[in-house]
Amino acid sequence: MNCSRIEPKLSEYLNEALSAREALDVEKHLAECHPCTLALTELRHTVRLVAAAPRFELSPDFMQRLQERIDAAPVPSRLGWVQNLRQLLRPRPLSLFGATAACVVAVVMFVPRLPMVQAPPQELGAAAHVAAAASQNVVLTASDPLEDIAVANLSANPAAYSEPTE
Amino acid sequence: MPRLSAAGPILSCIALSVVFASALPASAQPRPGTPAAQELRRFKRLRVPPRAPADTDVTDTDSRRARGLVALFLGSGQRQRYTAEQTTRILDGMVQETQQLVKWGGAGRQRIEYISPARFKGEIMLINGGRLLNYKPAPVHKVFIGPVPPEEFASRVRELNIAIRDGRIRVALIGSENVAGRMAGIVEIRPPRPNAPFKRLWIDEKTGVRLRNETISPRGATVNTSYFTRIDYDVDLLPRDFGPDSLPSAPYEAILPKSSPLASVQSAQEQCAFTIREPAVPDGYGLAGAWVVRAAARTTVILRYTDGLNFLTLFQSSLVRRPASPLAQPAKLRGGVAHWAAEDRLYTLIGNPRADAFNRLAESLK
Question: What letter does residue B256 receive in the DSSP assignment?
């Protein structure tokens, strides 16, 4: 499976929205493709940035005021198809900002990517791994009347856990 | 030694069947027509052929009383409502302790709210509606959620009853003790093979509630325990005590798939990009289930083994980067948990195997 088929699936892969088979195909490709691995890392970073962005509370009458503005907006006059075509093909002066922005986009899209010095994906610390395993183990023990979920929950002590040394 | 009449085993099994059938609350009964309902009907019709008494038959009074107490615990003990204060300790190489407030609303409905120590304070575990919700306060501030299907619990109760009846799991009454103001019979429960961890339960002789439990190492040392310091049966528990709304508002994170466990490592391998390494488990252990879990773009394979009483659970995931050099220290089991890296794998083991069995297990994964 090549990059052009994998890259559109990276977002769904990150959201764990792919089927088991598709996720397996993506992971097999990522194991061999550094550019796609980098793309996934960037996507993950973007998701984190968006999640950390400030949230704004809407006022209670926001929707009502929005609807009023929509209702008050002038209805565009209906032109014949010839006038629509002329409108579409009318030359429009580009603003300096718009031209600059277009050039930047063109450079980013079409100039070959320089190799980026990127930190490799970070490993979770030992404490995080053990905590995740302990949480899963608590769920597994809850189905057994002879098991003790309070003991299972205490079994991992991230504060006291040491990293495996290399 | 007194001989047991042929009617004894038949009556015992009928009694166990009635106890088992009545142990499930209405909300936990499987829907008619489902495989779980068919399984339950088959068990209810299970007829145990009478066994001729033998000289070596386990028929002594203490064993009968132990079986009766365990049956009481697995039956009406699960339905008994109460609130309690509980202390939990892990004693293997270090001492860790927590205190919790426990509310038990019947089978499949529990609430455990941590009081101390400070790093656990505010944590809540809820079991309700076939799910476990584990709220972790700041800095984590999340609710971890996983499936605890009532039919899985019922299936395990059935397995235990059959294993005790067949003598594969041995139970014995070893004494009685007052726990939190209640008289409890102390039942020892041992797995089929010797030199394996075993359990002790202190069971309220009147209600069947488990007042204390211990896991004992093969050398006879207590490795973990939970016990009530106070219990109150005369309580009014409200449905909202067990509802998700009673938890602080926090993001939810699923930590186990809702699907049933996979029956083989091969089934798990079909869903996993890296090659699953199977450990060398102690004698008498078999695979109880396998799971493939994806979280944060990482795949973890869970292999759970059991000897009928004890469990060993191995979590493995592939390392993003191989360790630069071999580990400076071998894998070490502490407090029932070991965590280590080997080759391109990260492992976590949860369980209480003997030291030599654990070392063999870790070696087999290199």
Answer: S
